[in-house]
Specification:
With about 425 residues, the protein is an alpha+beta fold. It is about 60% helix and about 10% strand. The protein is built from 15 helices and 7 strands. A 5-stranded mixed β-sheet has the order 4-5-3-6-7, sandwiched between helices. A two-stranded antiparallel sheet has the order 1-2.
Length: about 425
Amino acid sequence: MVVVKSIAPFLTATGRPVSTPLRDVRTISRQMVGHFIENVVPCATLPGEVLDGDVTTVTRVCLELTRSMLDGRDLPGRVERIQDAAAGWAREGIPIDTIHNAVQEGFRLGFDLVITDVTSHDHDTTIKVARRLSEAQNMITSVVSAAYVRELRSVVSEHHTAVHSLTSALLGGQSTSTMARECGIKIADRYHVLAVALPAHPDEFDPALDSTVVARRKLRRVQAELANRCAGKVLSLLSVDGGTLLLPTSEFSESALDGLIAGLSVAARVPVRAVVMSALPGEIPRAAERVHDLVEIVHRLGGPSRVYRPHELAFEYQLTRQGAARDHLSSVVDVLEAHPELLRTLEVYMSTNLQRSVTARELFVHTNTVDYRLKRIGQLTGFDVSSVSGICHLRAALIIRKHQEGSQADVLRAEEESSSCVG
């Protein structure tokens, strides 16, 4: 509970209390609200019931509080009334700058009224009045700001929770009509279902930094960019590693999705990758499962930062499925484990789309060295990198290897997390 401390002494001018011009607070408050409507531009856009109700009432309360401070008295309960009003304005979406402009203008008008009859002999009193009015304005501004921000955070949290529940329901194939009404969000006829992978930021591996804090900062940047670009039209479930976005197909074109992921990559400061499918609301769970399977493959292979479509990943997807063919192909490059420079050369050669000069620059070697290593790879694996068949087999083997390495890393990470929980 906020308590307004008594201020002494009692201020007078020309033989009477300086607060005398503020005695008729009801009339003055109505006059001030009329002035706000005519001169404070944002106030003119407020609904009539707000102006006639809360604004007029709170203006009167502020006048009473100001008058009491000029008289060195305390009026219990007035601050709480201001807090309640500020919280209500936050929930109704009234801009805080509109409120502050009105408070500032109100004190200007109040000061003019108080010093109307002040003479040159009351110079010291005028200074004291200005100081007390400044103290009153600062107090009221602080009370309004604190209550407004506190309520706004509560409203945002409630909306975020409701949106989170709605998104979870859509992904789980549950009924969403009631949740949608509570959120004030209309369920779209069709959605782009995006699975998004957020790689770790390099700072997450810096032992001098808290990796959890770095990861959360990355996520907050992504969420801010998402809110800025999608203007409340996206349903999302995101963590520091990625998640799911649901975007109405009527609001976002295919090219818009590409731009969105590019923007998220800039915000995250890491290469963000995504896979998208369109689906009816009832098809979202199955679509989400499919795109998450695919984005995991893209993430492990380290593809470029962009939006992928399922048909672009059919080859890679098939190679990661269990089967005898995969087991055979996975062993093709095993012989290169004893020659890490050859394995690295093959990986870079494939990632640069078979460009020898680019591969040489990335490895900081001469192109003749690249040629020699590619020849050795052919001799050791039995697959000639200068033939289409050889390239296909070696690329397939690398894809399977990357996927298996990712799976093993997941298992080790899960074991470490389990051990830390037990410990």
